[in-house]
Write a structure and sequence with these properties.
globular; 3-stranded antiparallel beta sheet; disordered N terminus; single chain; alpha/beta; 5-stranded mixed beta sheet
């Protein structure tokens, strides 16, 4: 795997980042003092970085983590958060209007290569690296994953003897809930039919991307099956069942930063230090703070950075 940054340990990396940031700050200050009229959109020769996010609580939290880590290391950051789903924000990224964006390896690969055969983590990442348009790249992927999954209530699973996605083929008048984009994605109704022989009778769009409204539709019986993400805190509640996916309808999907050419090596090092600390447990814990405790993304992000020693 080719990475934009590689150090021997997390401790070495973070120490390097902090010392580098201090030197960076001194150089930038001296340059501004000497010139007396530096471009306001530049810090030490690096363009102001625009950090974006999906309209989804988890994605906003991770974007805020990236933004705060960059700011703590001397970079000027502009936020463009909660701007919609992939079909909306990817053209903005490709146009150079957004510089840093938390993405998901499997889903992003399917966006560019719908017919991909890669399913495993490393294969998906490697193929994604070679699939991005000119001017974009991915940095290191995190251990944290947030893959799509098809979920039913325990009661519905028991009634229809459901264990895997394929078992849904025996359910008549199946109602599927998910965000509107799911209807046309490779793992949506068409994928269910072609891979598992499952027919969706009705698609119910719910515009909170696997959030409380989607879960409510499932629990209230307004939908039979819903597309939820693997880091959703409610999956630990005990009343929901994630259906097995033995045929790999869903690709491995790790959190990964997509960045523009404006992200230099120093900025990449900061972002990679965040990804290195972003475990599955950390992601679920932060999501729980958002969903259950209703904490603001900025506060959750600040605590994560301090807890992991990325920001003092």
């Amino acid at each position: 795997m080719k990475h934009a940054w590689n150090m021997d340990s997390a401790v070495t990396r973070r120490a390097f980042i902090r010392s580098g940031a201090a030197v960076f700050s001194l150089v930038a200050s001296a340059t501004l003092a000497g010139c007396g009229g530096a471009d306001a959109d530049n810090v030490g020769g690096a363009a102001r970085l625009v950090v974006g996010s999906q309209d989804f609580y988890e994605n906003e939290i991770v974007a805020e983590v990236f933004a705060q880590a960059l700011e703590a290391n001397g970079f000027e950051v502009e936020r463009s958060l909660r701007i919609g789903q992939r079909e909306v924000y990817m053209p903005e990224i490709e146009a150079g209007k957004i510089d840093v964006f938390p993405e998901y390896t499997g889903n992003l690969l399917q966006y560019y290569k719908p017919e991909t055969k890669a399913t495993e983590s490393q294969d998906v990442y490697d193929e994604l690296v070679g699939s991005l348009p000119e001017g974009l790249r991915v940095l290191e992927q995190a251990d944290a994953t947030d893959a799509d999954s098809y979920v039913v209530t325990g009661e519905f699973a028991m009634k229809h003897s459901l264990k895997s996605i394929g078992d849904l083929a025996g359910v008549n008048d199946l109602v599927l809930a998910g965000n509107s984009e799911l209807e046309t994605r490779p793992y949506g109704p068409e994928g269910l039919k072609s891979v598992y022989g499952v027919t969706v009778a009705q698609f119910k769009p719910v515009e909170d991307s696997g959030g409380p409204l989607t879960i409510k539709a499932l629990r209230d019986g307004d939908a039979d099956v819903a597309d939820l993400y693997s880091s959703t805190p409610d999956l630990a509640s005990g009343d929901l069942v994630v259906l097995d996916d033995p045929k790999g309808l869903f690709l491995a999907s790790h959190l990964v930063p997509v960045v523009s050419a404006n992200v230099n090596d120093d900025a990449a090092a900061v972002i990679n230090s965040v990804s290195e600390a972003l475990s599955a447990e950390e992601l679920i814990a932060m999501n729980a703070e958002s969903v259950n405790d209703q904490r603001a993304a900025a506060n959750i992000a600040a605590d994560f950075l301090k807890r992991n020693g990325i920001v003092s």
